[in-house]
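sry for the spam today, last one i promise. struct tokens for design, 156 residues
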């Protein structure tokens, strides 16, 4: 199966790439996704070895700040079952879970983040889902060309 490429958004005030860097083995579970399309990507399409652009949203500036790898494929988001958790969902149950998550591991923190402004200014990225009007998904596919272009931009 061919490797896929993704972009995952997180507000740095909630969980930043620096938080990931400090996590045990620089690995974490990606919990709290409560959008069905994003959930479907994680549950059905993300596979071990896929690469992820880590994106800081609701930040100044908003930017892709690094690369991660999927190290565990979709499994039930246990935070949905616990009333003490921020992402608790009383409608989700262990027998038929509504929400899923994956585990990711940090591969590289960019020395130079690639801002949304720079992404929008790059004609090679004009079709990227991130820059399409109305696309607010927290997990979205990217093409290999888009992924490679953003990594290249981080090295300039």
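last one done:
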């Amino acid at each position: 199966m061919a490797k896929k490429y993704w972009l995952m958004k997180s507000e740095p005030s909630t969980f930043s790439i620096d938080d990931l860097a400090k996590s045990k083995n620089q690995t974490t579970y990606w919990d709290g996704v409560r959008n069905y399309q994003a959930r479907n990507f994680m549950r059905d399409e993300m596979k071990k070895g896929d690469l992820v652009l880590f994106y800081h949203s609701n930040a100044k500036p908003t930017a892709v700040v690094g690369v991660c790898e999927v190290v565990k494929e979709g499994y039930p988001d246990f935070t949905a079952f616990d009333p003490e958790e921020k992402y608790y969902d009383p409608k989700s149950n262990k027998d038929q879970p509504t929400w899923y998550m994956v585990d990711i591991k940090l591969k590289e923190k960019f020395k130079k983040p690639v801002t949304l402004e720079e992404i929008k200014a790059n004609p090679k990225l004009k079709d990227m889902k991130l820059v399409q009007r109305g696309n607010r998904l927290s997990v979205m596919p990217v093409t290999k060309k888009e992924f490679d272009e953003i990594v290249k931009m981080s090295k300039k």
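The helical segments are 17-22, 36-45, 116-121, 144-154. ok im logging off now
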